Every structure is written in structure tokens, then in C-alpha cells.
């Protein structure tokens, strides 16, 4: 029992660190700033949209034995591969992994060391990432046992100082829809996508610890997810509160990165910049390690191990190294449309996977997924200046969930349309 509890804590700590990237460090303080005295209401919306969706994704991937393709399988083989590859490329070497290095450089290195060479830093960052990723069975233990405690200590020092010595008075909220804004900010973190990809890393680690029964793996994965959720709840709450304490000093035009840098410097002076650099570096490194390992495992399985895991993670690190030198803003700009495309259908399939044993008609999966994709395409068109009035008039559009009602309608239609093929549910039941 002691070994089981220790393993759950280590895996939970690792999940916390892999979720908590630099982007997660930026959103809560800004939310606290704009919501002021109503920061707790905004934080509630944030935690539901961020941690809530991530827990669902972790549970779904646990039920599927860590195989991302199984989460998507009942939507059709071709769509399953397309979505899986899009998620892994986007959350991997195209966006999230290079962004970890770029953010570490811009927030953790430049403020302290000034004109340090960006290329040299990228080489060092990804050399460390590759070194700690090359053995997938050790990834979770390395992060959970060593890196996460250091990250948590640095975060708690910052938050503790802000609670003991509040920086200023908390002003009334400057926005009307506080809860909705919290939901929107949490939705924008895209942690649910990360949860889908990181689930494979977690399941691999759990299996290597000797837990081979699927029921055990699902149980441990969910409990570890709760440990991670508790850590995220405390840290997000603390950071949101810190943001609210400077609501009389900054307005909504302040940059999110500039806000957290200013808060840290006001609390701790120049040493605060060093602490922030440590926090950012640890947060980004743990996320890079987890996502690199997840990408390697996915494409190794997809190729039936014809392409070795070690080869894939090496290529991912080299590609990410190159992309990271374009800078955070550029990376986000060219990747945003892809994220808009893949996120809604991913959430749909995660939720339906959890209900899989109750849905025996695969057309429910297929119709709802294509509906989510269709709305996503319309959203992308709107982002590029093509006016599509429909997308803004749909229910929940203000929250970024304008795809929900069309998905529900499509799933209802799919339920009544008889599938020509034998349901994959009948051929390959996903264990609860």
C-alpha cells in the first residue's frame, strides 16, 4: 500500500509539472488583475475549464490504455489518424515544445543575463530535454521525484510572499462577465490537448512499475490526476490572488508576461527575477520533457516501431530547437489556427470515450466530430477576416464554446442513423 501511494504521488507530481507550463504561469495573474475583488468567481470558471477538462482527458486516455488513437478510433480510422497526428505535431514540435524554450529565454534568461545568445540557449535547453527524455520509462520518475518539488518550492515562495505582504488594495472588477472570462482563460490554456498526449507517458510509467491490469492503471491514473489537480488548484488560486492585489496599479493593457515579471520584482526585488527564472525554466523544461516523450511514443506506435522512439525524440528536439528561435509571438501566431481546428473535436471524443459503453452507434461519434470540425473551420475563417455571422450567433459563442450545441444536435441525429458497419464498440470494447 505504501508503494502504491508513493507511486500515485510521484505520477501526480509529474502530471502537475507537465501541465504547468509557462503559459499557465501567465493566465491566472492576469485574470486576477481584471477581476479584482471578484477574483474567486473568475478563478472558479478558470479551474473548471482548465483542470476539469484535463481530468476528463486523463481519465479517457487511461481507459484506453494510454493509446491516443483509441480515443479517436470510433470516429473513423482516417479521422483518428489525422486528429492524432495534428494534436501530436501541434502540441509537440510545432507549438508547445518550441514555445517552452522561447518562453524560458524571454522570461527567465534575458531579464537576468541580458544579451545571452538565443541559439546557444536553445541548444542547451534541448540537449537537457533529449537527455532526460531518451528513456521513456524514466521520464515520469525524473519529473515527479526531482523537478516538481523544486518547481513547487519556487512557486510557493512567490505566492507566500504575496499573501504575507500584499502589494496593494484589491479593486472592483473591470469586466462584467467574470465567470465567463475565467472559463475563457482556462479554455485558452489548451491543457486538455496536453492531457490527451501526456496520458501515454503516464500509462507507460505505471505499467513499468508493475501495474499491468487495466483496472489498476485507470484507477492510478485518475488518482494521480487528482493529485495534479490539487496542486494546480493551489498554485492557480495563489497566482490569481497575486494578480488581484495589483489591480490598482495596472490596467488590462499590461502584457501578461510583463505583469508576472513586475509582481515578482515588486515582491522580491532582483532576487525575484532569479526566482521567476527558476520557476519558468522548471515549468518549461518539465513540459518539454513530457511532450517530447509523448510525441515519440505516439509516432513510434503509429509506425509499429519501424521508426524508433529514440530517433523520433531526437528529431523532435532538433526541429523544436529551430522553431523556438522564431520567438513566442510568432510561434503562437502561425499555430493558432491549427489549435482552433483540433481542440473542439478532441474534447468531444474525450467526453464520448468516457461514455463509450453507453453509446453503441459509432455514428454518434462520427456525426458529432464532423460537426465540431465544421464549426472549427468557420471559426478559423472568422479569424482570417471572412465574415461568418452564424458562428457569433450560436449559443455559448461568448465563452468560446459555440460548437457545443451543433455537436449535441449532430450526435442526436447520429444516434438515429443506423451504422452500415459493425460498431467498433462491439468489436473492441474499451474497459471501464
End-to-end separation: 23 Å
Largest sheet: none
Number of strands: 0
Give the CATH level 1 class of the largest domain. Answer: Mainly Alpha
Uncertain segments are 425-432
Task: Kindly give the count of domains.
Answer: 2
Average predicted local confidence, pLDDT: 82
- Taking all Cα atoms into account, the compactness measure Rg is 21 Å
Query: Percent of residues in helical segments?
Result: over 70%
What is the CATH topology descriptor of the largest domain?
A: Hydantoin permease
SSE order, as H and E?
HHHHHHHHHHHHHHHHHH
Quote the beta fraction.
Answer: under 5%
CATH superfamily of the largest domain: Hydantoin permease
- Count every helix, treating DSSP H or I runs of 4 or more residues as helices: 18
Structural class: mainly alpha
Mass-distribution shape: globular
What would CATH call the architecture of the largest domain?
Answer: Orthogonal Bundle
Short description:
By secondary structure, this protein is mainly alpha-helical.
Describe this structure in words.
With 432 residues, the chain is mainly alpha-helical. The protein has 2 domains: 2-333, Orthogonal Bundle (Hydantoin permease); 355-432, no CATH class. The chain has 18 helices and no strands. The longest helix is centred in the middle third of the chain and has 47 residues, at 256-302. The protein starts with a helix and ends in a 5-residue tail after the last helix.
Amino acid at each position: 500500500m505504501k508503494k502504491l501511494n508513493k507511486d500515485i504521488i510521484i505520477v501526480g507530481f509529474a502530471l502537475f509539472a507537465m501541465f504547468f507550463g509557462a503559459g499557465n504561469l501567465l493566465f491566472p495573474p492576469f485574470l486576477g488583475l481584471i477581476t479584482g475583488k471578484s477574483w474567486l468567481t473568475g478563478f472558479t470558471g478558470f479551474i473548471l475549464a482548465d483542470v476539469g477538462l484535463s481530468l476528463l482527458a486523463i481519465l479517457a486516455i487511461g481507459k484506453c490504455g494510454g493509446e491516443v488513437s483509441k480515443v479517436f478510433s470510433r470516429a473513423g480510422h482516417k479521422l483518428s489518424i489525422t486528429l492524432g497526428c495534428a494534436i501530436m505535431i501541434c502540441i509537440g514540435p510545432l507549438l508547445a515544445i518550441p514555445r517552452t524554450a522561447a518562453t524560458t529565454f524571454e522570461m527567465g534568461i534575458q531579464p537576468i543575463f541580458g544579451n545571452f545568445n538565443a541559439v546557444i540557449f536553445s541548444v542547451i535547453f534541448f540537449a537537457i530535454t533529449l537527455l532526460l527524455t531518451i528513456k521513456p520509462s524514466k521520464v515520469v520518475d525524473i519529473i515527479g521525484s526531482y523537478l516538481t518539488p523544486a518547481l513547487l518550492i519556487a512557486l510557493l515562495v512567490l505566492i507566500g510572499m504575496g499573501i504575507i505582504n500584499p502589494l496593494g488594495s484589491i479593486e472592483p472588477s473591470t469586466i462584467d462577465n467574470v465567470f465567463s472570462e475565467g472559463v475563457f482563460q482556462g479554455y485558452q490554456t489548451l491543457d486538455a490537448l496536453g492531457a490527451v498526449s501526456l496520458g501515454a507517458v503516464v500509462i507507460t510509467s505505471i505499467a513499468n512499475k508493475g501495474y499491468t491490469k487495466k483496472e489498476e492503471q485507470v484507477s492510478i491514473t485518475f488518482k494521480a490526476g487528482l493529485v495534479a489537480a490539487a496542486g494546480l488548484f493551489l498554485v492557480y488560486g495563489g497566482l490569481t490572488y497575486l494578480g488581484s492585489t495589483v489591480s490598482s496599479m495596472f490596467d488590462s493593457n499590461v502584457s501578461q508576461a510583463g505583469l508576472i515579471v513586475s509582481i515578482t520584482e515588486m515582491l522580491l526585488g532582483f532576487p525575484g527575477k532569479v526566482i521567476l527564472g527558476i520557476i519558468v525554466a522548471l515549468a518549461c523544461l518539465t513540459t518539454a520533457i513530457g511532450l517530447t516523450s509523448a510525441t515519440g511514443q505516439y509516432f513510434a506506435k503509429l509506425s509499429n516501431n519501424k521508426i524508433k522512439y529514440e530517433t523520433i525524440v531526437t528529431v523532435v528536439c532538433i526541429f523544436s530547437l529551430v522553431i523556438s528561435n522564431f520567438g513566442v509571438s510568432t510561434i503562437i501566431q502561425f499555430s493558432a489556427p491549427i489549435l482552433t481546428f483540433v481542440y473542439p473535436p478532441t474534447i468531444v471524443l474525450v467526453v464520448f470515450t468516457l461514455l463509450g459503453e453507453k453509446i453503441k452507434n459509432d455514428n454518434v461519434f462520427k456525426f458529432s466530430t464532423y460537426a465540431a470540425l465544421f464549426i472549427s473551420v468557420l471559426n478559423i475563417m472568422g479569424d482570417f477576416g471572412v465574415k461568418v455571422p452564424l458562428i457569433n450567433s450560436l449559443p455559448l459563442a461568448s465563452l468560446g464554446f459555440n460548437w457545443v450545441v451543433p455537436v449535441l444536435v449532430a450526435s442526436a441525429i447520429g444516434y438515429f442513423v443506423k451504422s452500415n458497419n459493425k460498431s467498433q464498440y462491439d468489436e473492441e470494447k474499451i474497459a471501464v
